[in-house]
Amino acid sequence: MNNSLWLQGFLKNTKKPILEKKKVDICIIGGGITGISTAFALKDSNYDILLIDKGTIGFGATAYTTAKISYLQELPYSKIASMHGKEAAKKYYESQVEAFH
């Protein structure tokens, strides 16, 4: 059995989904870390937002990750540098730093 630190103490939702027509401004498909983060970032907006997932939100791949966010990824930089040069790797690094902040 796969145990996840993030799921300890949580019960998976077994309720049937509510299938009704709903008008929304933004529909976020996927209840993983990206979908949840997007919904969170938009929570104070004036948009009607719907977050949907084919399973239980937060119980897919996201539940079994380390939840580490980092731009210090040696392998991608090395690969970019070998394929496109050090300047391209530097630009990629700078874009990751900017996105992180």
Main sheet characteristics: 2 strands, parallel
Helix count, per DSSP?
A: 3
- Span between termini: 37 Å
Indicate how many domains the architecture comprises: 2
Strand content: 5-15%
Structural class: mainly alpha
Order of helices and strands: EHEHH
Low-confidence stretches: none
Give the total of beta strands.
2
- What fraction, in percent, of the residue positions are helical? 25-40%
What does the average pLDDT come to?
82
Rg calculated over all Cα atoms: 18 Å
Overall shape: extended
Strand order of the largest sheet: 1-2
Overview of the structural elements:
By secondary structure, this protein is mainly alpha-helical. It folds into 2 domains: 21-65, no CATH class; 69-101, no CATH class. 36% of the residues lie in helices and 8% in strands. It contains 3 helices and 2 strands. It has helices at 33-42, 74-84, 86-100, and strands spanning 26-29, 49-52. It has a two-stranded parallel sheet with strand order 1-2. It is extended, with a radius of gyration of 18 Å. The two termini are 37 Å apart. The model has no long low-confidence stretch (mean pLDDT 82).
